[in-house]
Design a protein that fits this description.
329 residues; alpha/beta; Rossmann fold; 2 domains; 8 strands
Length: 329
């Protein structure tokens, strides 16, 4: 039996000390991440980019920085993904991963959201956003693209299809804004009364908003919650100017105009949407000449998060390159 202090015992003590130091370092790193939401979210974003095969890029357009995410082959047909109000390019990563095998996907932060600053001196209405997205496409060399837009981003995608029809191949609208709903739900009544039901001032608001927009709430650890609250507070001066500018467009900016959209269009709506009432779905499908649409069972406003498989199985075949569409059953 080895004597105390013999080489095997010394090695065991050294291993134990090393393990204790490593554990202490891991605990310290975890504690820093837990109390530093920006560090936590930065690392989480990078992990998500790696997981989905996404590259983060930056373009400068007319002096404004446009952060954007790209995936897929640079030689493939282009899909531009436009996020909704209060979110960012990262919200579109899942859909980007669905389309990257057959497309080059581009997901920008829209002005005043995510890492994209407010454009001082501009009135941030629907026409502004449509114009700026087209300028962004020009700057990165995109002549034509299919557009996928969710909520506010869907209304902006429709506006681009109306004002720049030569730039749009196909159109996917996920619970888009822009029309007066046959049924006005509580969210819409409050918004029409100049309230902001999506206000985000503290973590209680965060929980309320998540319950409003998701039928199946995603996991949200404390650093994530804190990050979104801090970001909402940082952007509050911009938000207070964007809301009154964009609200008339979101409420009725597409009224009487959808008949001029000639791009083949897919409209999807979550049956449990508490933000934009599902009664809007038949209006969009009826008024866009070449449109088809579906309700997605069990999904709320962010339907591609609530029911990803169901939404993917509708979007991917619809946007498939022409040869693939022709050969599909």
């Amino acid at each position: 039996m080895p004597e105390p202090g013999s080489p095997p015992r010394r090695w065991l003590r050294r291993i134990a000390r090393a393990a204790a130091i490593l554990l202490a370092l891991l605990v310290a790193v975890a504690a820093v991440l837990w109390v530093s939401p920006y560090t936590f979210m930065s690392l989480a974003r990078q992990a998500a980019y790696w997981r989905f095969g996404i590259t983060e890029r930056l373009a400068v357009v007319d002096g404004h920085r446009w952060p954007w995410l790209e995936a897929g082959s640079p030689d493939a047909p282009v899909v531009v993904l436009l996020h909704g109000y209060g979110t960012s390019k990262e919200a579109m990563m899942t859909m980007s991963s669905w389309l990257a095998p057959t497309h080059r996907t581009i997901a920008p932060d829209l002005p005043g959201f995510g890492q994209h600053d407010f454009h001082e001196g501009e009135h941030h209405d629907g026409a502004f956003y449509a114009r700026e997205v087209v300028r962004f496409m020009d700057a990165i060399g995109i002549e034509r693209a299919s557009l996928v837009g969710t909520s506010m981003g869907g209304a902006i995608a429709a506006e681009i299809a109306l004002t720049h029809p030569d730039r749009v191949d196909r159109l996917v609208l996920l619970a888009p804004a822009g029309l007066v709903a046959p049924v006005e739900n509580d969210f819409m009544r409050r918004a029409n009364a100049s309230e902001n039901p999506l206000r985000l001032e503290d973590e209680e608001d965060f929980d309320r908003v998540l319950s409003l927009v998701f039928a199946r709430r995603p996991p949200t650890p404390h650093p994530v919650r804190r990050f979104f609250v801090l970001e909402a507070q940082r952007r509050l001066p911009w938000t207070n100017r964007i809301i009154p500018a964009i609200e008339p467009f979101g409420r009725a900016g597409l009224e009487g105009r959808l008949g001029a959209i000639h791009a083949p269009t897919l409209v999807l709506w979550g049956e449990l949407d508490q933000v934009l009432d599902p009664s809007l779905l038949p209006r969009f499908v009826a008024e866009i000449p070449d449109a088809e649409g579906d309700r997605v069972d069990g999904a709320g406003h962010v339907l591609f998060s609530d029911r990803p498989s169901a939404v993917r199985d509708r979007i991917v075949p619809f946007l498939a390159p022409q040869g693939a569409r022709a050969s599909s059953p």
